[in-house]
Design a protein that fits this description.
heterodimer; A: alpha/beta; Rossmann fold; 6-stranded mixed beta sheet; 4-stranded antiparallel beta sheet; 7 helices; about 25% strand; B: alpha+beta; 9-stranded mixed beta sheet; 19 strands; binds adenosine-5'-triphosphate; binds magnesium ion
C-alpha cells in the first residue's frame, strides 16, 4: 500500500477575470521508504502540489473527484482539525527559504514542532527528553554547536539543516521538501542532499520538488510536472 | 506551549509591543490617577460636609419642638448612641464689620455636647498647631508661632465655649462665624489663613493679648437681626443683638464656611424666644382693653395658665463606633423619637418630623460630586478606548509583519484557533505588562501627587491646584487598591479586545499565501 497516493488533483488560480489552471488532474503515488523527486519548470505548480500533499491547501472540487489518500485514509474533505493533526504528526516540511522563526534559537525552532504536537502539559512533562531529541537531530545535521544561535546568525546551509532537523522532530513518516537547495551554492546544496540520502537510507519517505536536475538525480524515482500533469521522467 | 514561548519572545525582541504596553500603561495610569483624585476629593468633601452635622439629624425647622432635653436623654440612654446635642437653626441678617449685610444661617449650638457629637474642636480654625500646610515651608502660618500659643489657646477656648472673657472675670456669649463670613481672613497661596490687615507682633509688654494681630476677629462683633417664631408658628417682631466674635470655624465646604454663624445655644434660644416661658390663655386677649368687674376699663393682663417649654429646632446625634451605618442609626433614632412623640403630644408626630442621616443633609453636594466623578471617569474611559484601538493598530501591523511566522506555524500543524489564541494571549500579555506598569505608575503618582504638583508648579510657574480656589491645601488623592485593580483588569481586557480583531485576521490567513510571503 502506498504511503500517500493522490489522484485528480486540480488547482486553478483566479487572477482577476482570468483563470490560471496550474494543476490539471495530477496523479502521484509514493511507497513507504521511497525517495521521489518531482521536476518541473519554475511556475509549473510544484509548490502548489506539495502544499496539497501536505494538506496546507485544498484541491479544487470537480469531476472526477480529487483524492489524496494517506495510508488508507482519505484527506480530501476532512475537517481542519484532522488536517492539522495530519500535518503535525505525519508530515515534515522543508522549504526553499528555510522558514525558521527569527525570534527563536535554533534549538527552539526545532522544539516548536514538538510543542505544537504535544500541548503544554505533555511537552513540559517530558521537556528534557524533547530537548535531548532535538539536540540529537541538530547534531546529526551537524549543528550541535549552534543550538543557541538565532537564524540570522546562521549561514544559509546551516539554516536549511536546522529546518531539516525541525521537519524530523516529530519523526514524521513523510518528508515534503520544496526546493531544499534552491537558495544554496552547489557544495552546500550537495551536503544537504547528502543528508536527504542518508535519511532515505534509514527508511525515511521523502518527496522533493525541484527544477534542479542534480537534486533530482539523488532520488530513487523522478517524475516531471508538465502542463499541470505528471509525466514519468 | 508554543504560545508561551512565542509570546515571551515577541514581547522581548520587538519595539512595537513595548510601545503598545506603554500606551496601555499610560491609559490605565491616567484613569487610576483621575479616579483617585476625584475619589479623594469626594471623600474630603463628604467628610467636610459631615463635620458639623454628626451622624443623624432630627429636625423641625424654625418653630422647633419642646422637651428636646428629654429626647436627648432618651437617645443617650441607647447603647448604640454616643451623644446627642441640641441646636437651633435659623436665619438672620448679619451686619458685618465693614457694614455689609448678609443673610446667614445661624446655628445655636451647645459647645460641649456639640463637640462630642460633631468633633467641633477640629473645625475651629484659630488654635495652636504644629503641622504646617504643605506649601508653607517657611512656617509662616501664625498658628505655628509658639509666641502665640498662649493667645491662640485662649481663642480656642473661647471658640469651644462660644463665649469671650469680659471685664469683671465673666464670660459673655459670643459667635463663631465661618472663616469666610467676615472677609477679614484671607487664604494665602501657601494654604493657611491670615488676617487681611495688621502686622504680626508679639504680645505687648504689659502681657495684654492682641488677638487681632494673630487672628481676624480682633474686637470684631457681628450684629444679628433675626425673626423669632412662637410655638404656634406665628412670626414675632424682629430682634437684634450684637455678639463678639470668639473664633472662626472651617469645614472645607465653601457654602457652609461662607454663610454660617454659630451662636451660643442658650443665648440664641432666648433671643429667638424659644426658651421656657409662661404659657398664657389666648382667649383672654392680653393687651386689649377690657372692662373690669368694677366697671372700669383697663388693659387685660396675660392670664398665665402654665409653662411653655423651651424649644430646639434640631438635635444632632452621633452613633457609637460600632454603628458604622448611619442608616441603622437613623432607624434607632426614629424608634426613640416615635416613643417620645407618643409621650409628648405637643411635639411633632413621628411621621412628620425630619430625621435624616448626614448624607441626607448633604445630599445635593454629595450627589453633585458623585455625578462629576462618574462623568469624568466615563470621559476618561472613552479616552482609554483609544488604547484599545492603539493595540488594535499595532497588532494589525504586527500580524502583517509576522505573516510568514503564521504560515510556518500552520505548516507545523498549529490550528487556526491556536494561532488566534497566540495573538490574543500576546495582547493580554501586553495588557498585563502595560496595566501593571500603569498601576505602579499611578501608585507612585497618587502617593506623591502633591510633591509632583509642587514640582510642576515650581518649574512652570503655574499651580493647577490653587489652595485659594480649592478648599484643601493638598490634593486629596487616595490610592484605592480595589479601584486600581478594577482599572488594571479593564486595561488587560481592553488589550485582549484590541488584539482580538488582528488575531482573527491571523487565524484566517491562508497558510499557503503566508508561506509565499517573502
Ligand atoms: N495565490 C495565488 N494566486 C494566483 N496565482 C498563484 C497563486 N499561487 C501560485 N500561483 C501561480 O500558480 C503557478 C504555480 O505556482 P507554484 O508556486 O506552485 O510554482 P512552482 O512550480 O513552485 O514555481 P517555482 O519553481 O518558481 O517555485 C504560478 O504561475 C503562480 O504564479
Ligand atoms: Mg515553488
Amino acid at each position: 500500500m502506498p504511503l500517500i497516493a493522490a489522484a485528480n488533483l486540480r488547482k486553478t488560480y483566479r487572477l482577476g477575470r482570468v483563470d490560471v489552471p496550474v494543476l490539471r488532474g495530477v496523479e502521484i503515488s509514493v511507497e513507504p521508504g521511497e525517495f521521489v523527486a518531482i521536476l518541473g519548470a519554475s511556475g509549473s505548480g510544484k509548490s502548489t502540489l506539495l502544499h496539497l500533499l501536505g494538506a496546507l491547501d485544498r484541491p479544487d472540487r470537480g469531476d472526477p473527484a480529487p483524492s489524496i489518500r494517506y495510508r488508507d485514509e482519505e484527506l480530501v474533505g476532512r475537517s481542519a482539525s484532522t488536517l492539522d493533526q495530519y500535518r503535525t504528526t505525519q508530515v515534515g516540511f522543508v522549504f526553499q527559504f528555510y522558514h525558521l522563526l527569527p525570534e527563536l534559537t535554533t534549538l527552539e525552532n526545532v522544539l516548536l514542532g514538538a510543542m505544537i504536537a504535544q500541548g503544554r502539559l505533555r511537552f513540559t512533562a517530558s521537556r528534557a527528553e524533547h530537548v535531548r531529541h532535538a539536540t540529537n537531530l541538530l547534531e546529526r545535521v551537524g549543528l550541535g554547536h549552534r543550538l543557541r544561535h538565532r537564524p540570522t546568525e546562521l549561514s544559509g546551509g546551516e539554516r536549511q539543516r536546522a529546518a531539516l532537523a525541525r521537519a524530523l522532530m516529530n519523526a514524521p513518516p513523510l518528508v515534503l521538501a520544496d526546493e531544499p537547495t534552491g537558495n544554496l551554492d552547489r557544495v552546500t546544496g550537495a551536503k544537504i542532499l547528502d543528508l536527504f540520502s542518508e535519511m532515505h537510507r534509514q527508511g525515511q519517505t521523502i518527496v522533493v520538488v525541484t527544477h534542479d536536475e542534480a537534486t533530482a538525480e539523488r532520488a530513487q524515482r523522478v517524475l516531471r510536472l508538465v502542463d499541470g500533469q505528471m509525466v514519468k521522467a | 506551549m508554543y504560545h508561551a514561548l512565542l509570546t515571551r519572545k515577541y514581547l522581548t525582541t520587538k519595539i512595537m509591543p513595548l510601545l503598545a504596553s506603554l500606551a496601555v500603561m499610560l491609559c490605565t495610569g491616567m484613569v487610576i490617577v483621575v479616579w483617585s483624585v476625584m475619589g479623594g476629593f469626594l471623600r474630603h468633601l463628604v467628610d467636610s460636609g459631615r463635620s458639623l452635622v454628626g451622624d443623624v439629624v432630627v429636625d423641625w425647622p424654625n418653630v422647633g419642638f419642646p422637651h428636646y432635653d428629654e429626647l436627648i436623654r432618651r437617645l443617650e440612654a441607647r447603647p448604640e448612641i454616643e451623644a446627642a446635642s441640641p441646636a437651633i437653626v435659623s436665619y438672620a441678617l448679619c451686619v458685618l464689620p465693614d457694614g455689609r449685610k448678609e443673610m446667614v444661617m445661624i446655628r445655636g449650638i451647645d459647645g460641649a455636647s456639640f463637640e462630642r457629637v460633631t468633633g467641633f474642636d477640629r473645625a475651629l480654625y484659630w488654635k495652636p498647631t504644629t503641622e504646617p500646610a504643605r506649601r508653607d515651608t517657611k512656617r509662616e502660618d501664625p498658628r505655628l508661632n509658639p509666641q502665640y500659643a498662649g493667645v491662640l489657646n485662649n481663642v480656642f477656648e473661647a471658640g469651644r465655649t462660644l463665649t469671650v472673657p469680659a471685664p469683671g472675670g465673666v464670660r459673655v456669649p459670643a459667635v463663631v462665624p465661618g472663616i469666610e463670613v467676615t472677609g477679614y481672613s484671607r487664604r494665602s497661596p501657601l494654604g493657611f489663613y491670615s488676617t487681611g490687615f495688621g502686622r504680626l507682633s508679639p504680645p505687648d509688654a504689659a502681657g495684654g493679648e492682641r488677638w487681632g494681630e494673630v487672628f481676624t476677629p480682633k474686637d470684631v462683633s457681628l450684629t444679628l437681626h433675626c425673626v423669632p417664631v412662637d410655638s404656634k408658628g406665628n412670626i414675632l417682631d424682629v430682634v437684634s443683638r450684637t455678639f463678639p466674635v470668639a473664633n472662626e470655624f472651617q469645614t472645607g465646604v465653601y457654602e457652609v464656611d461662607r454663610k454660617t454663624v454659630l451662636v451660643e445655644f442658650a443665648e440664641l434660644q432666648r433671643l429667638l424666644k424659644m426658651d421656657a416661658a409662661g404659657a398664657i390663655d389666648a382667649a383672654t386677649r392680653p393687651g386689649t382693653v377690657g372692662v373690669g368687674p368694677d366697671g372700669r376699663e383697663s388693659f387685660v393682663l396675660p392670664n398665665v395658665v402654665g409653662v411653655s417649654p423651651a424649644r430646639a429646632t434640631t438635635v444632632y446625634v452621633r452613633g457609637k463606633g460600632e454603628v458604622g451605618n448611619a442608616e441603622e442609626l437613623k432607624a434607632i433614632v426614629t424608634e426613640v423619637y416615635t416613643k417620645f412623640a407618643v409621650d409628648h403630644p405637643d411635639a411633632p408626630a413621628a411621621g412628620i418630623i425630619g430625621i435624616g442621616t448626614w448624607r441626607d443633609q448633604n445630599r445635593m453636594m454629595i450627589a453633585a460630586v458623585e455625578k462629576e466623578t462618574g462623568l469624568v471617569l466615563i470621559l476618561f474611559s472613552f479616552i482609554s478606548v483609544t488604547a484599545v484601538f492603539l493595540v488594535l493598530a499595532i497588532f494589525w501591523s504586527m500580524v502583517a509583519e509576522k505573516t510568514k511566522d503564521i504560515g510556518i506555524l500552520r505548516a507545523l500543524g498549529a490550528s487556526r484557533s491556536g494561532v488566534a489564541w497566540l495573538w490574543i494571549r500576546y495582547g493580554l500579555a501586553i495588557g498585563v505588562v502595560g496595566a501593571l506598569g500603569g498601576g505602579t505608575l499611578a501608585y507612585f503618582v497618587v502617593t506623591n501627587i502633591n510633591e509632583i504638583h509642587e514640582w510642576i508648579g515650581q518649574t512652570t510657574g503655574t499651580f493647577v491646584w490653587d489652595p485659594r480656589v480649592y478648599y484643601f491645601s493638598e490634593i486629596p488623592a487616595r490610592f484605592k487598591w480595589f479601584d486600581a485593580s478594577i482599572v488594571v483588569v479593564a486595561g488587560v481586557l481592553s488589550s485582549g479586545i484590541g488584539a482580538f480583531v488582528p488575531a482573527l485576521r491571523a487565524a484566517r490567513l491562508d497558510p499557503v499565501r503566508a508561506l509565499r510571503f517573502e
